[in-house]
Sequence to fold (562 residues):
Amino acid sequence: MKKLMLAASSLLFATSVVAETQWRKLDPQNTVLMTLPHGKVVIELAPEFTPNHVARFKQLAKSGFYQGNKFYRVIDGFVAQAGPKDGSEKDKSVSELKMESEWKIDDSWQYTEVQQPAFFAPITGFKKGFAIGLDKEQNRAWLTHCPGVIAMARGNEPDTGSSHFYIVNGQAPRYLDRIMAVFGRVVYGMNHIQSITRTAGVEGEAPLKEKDMIEIVDVQLMSDVKPENRIAIEVEDTDNKAFADKVQGRKYRTAAFFYKKPPPVLDVCQVPVKSRLISTK
Amino acid sequence: MKKLMLAASSLLFATSVVAETQWRKLDPQNTVLMTLPHGKVVIELAPEFTPNHVARFKQLAKSGFYQGNKFYRVIDGFVAQAGPKDGSEKDKSVSELKMESEWKIDDSWQYTEVQQPAFFAPITGFKKGFAIGLDKEQNRAWLTHCPGVIAMARGNEPDTGSSHFYIVNGQAPRYLDRIMAVFGRVVYGMNHIQSITRTAGVEGEAPLKEKDMIEIVDVQLMSDVKPENRIAIEVEDTDNKAFADKVQGRKYRTAAFFYKKPPPVLDVCQVPVKSRLISTK
Fold:
């Protein structure tokens, strides 16, 4: 009595992907290594989409700013948020950034389509490994809030992000699309983000004390990490036929496991973009 | 420079919920305590919707069947799946169940609506704390695959579930709706489910060895747990005006934080249903 629940979905890839998966090496200048007490996390930054926030995050990483910062708001099924102590000198030392929540596109802008119309956007798709939303009437595209994305936290006003960031750890809070600056995504070690101790328990449970919050050991630009300590990752390239075929395979299920076919729609945040470790030698 | 990203969403509840949250006690006869090496998890069963699978899970829990079962397929962003060793005597000792993936409704069937039309269902909503899909033309409703639901695994044929189960740990795999028997949901300790060691690493990383997989200490019916060891939970009642108001508040955002309004649509799996600990004395 083999339990094929998961095997079946692997099988699906095997049968529906005709072209071979294309891989893309991460640029160590735009990749970050976040060291937590319980594991290492690799984040790919998105300089093409969110240049100023990426520049800020890199600058703070280089200066060791995030060492000892705490994950002070960690809500199951929502986000893990970290930063310096609110209102501290360190916190106030960082200037506020102008919002970068979407960018201009024209008709020639290329991407891999996932769904049209979609639920939170006229069109969804992928570009350079990132899930995106598009509005062609407004000539705008944006990075969507899928699990694993990192974005800058802010106050009520749009241009108030500085150094505090959050990583989405649960069902995509897509209502934050286009009003937050998403600037990267976790490509390795998402399980360690999921494991970060929650600060807000079930109601009736005492919230976590500050001393028990998980602390960031360090955030470093991968290019600044000693070669022997780097984690070298390739990610699935999303801008090619193999990935487009995979998307179609997930939308129109053909495996025997699907004895009744699901609706032919696809949640862009439910499309895995694969990563793999590569040798650094 | 207060970072209000999360505070703002709490504020939203405060301003938009006019009626007070209603709470509902869990029935210890239909609640399960799953003890993992690293924490305790409480699962509410759904006997009204999936009676035979609930009866099976309760029977297996009572007999101590799940003691020592391993989480042998744990995929980040998808599911944590456990059960006895595939093809073992223990595995084969359990008979197969007929699928229970949806149920019949009529026009008088009551629920709290979330979205119509929705993305994977003509209508989504809540009933007795569970996220549901509905098709009124087909007179059918079903439990949706939101994060935290527990369902029976199966082979390719529908009527092949027996004892192996999975808990959704990532973005809702809604393409499994209506073809799997969802029979409960985690109401406490979801962080411990999220923390279960992944068995499939990044490609290029060795998969987890069987000896290192997380083992279930025990699954017990809460009514069989010694009173002093019980975890008593109340959950937000979803079948009343306060919850309906909360749903509307999440769909039509009014907080200042939303300086541009998100599309007025709501993902049923992105609506938190609160839990709280209560005293058992």
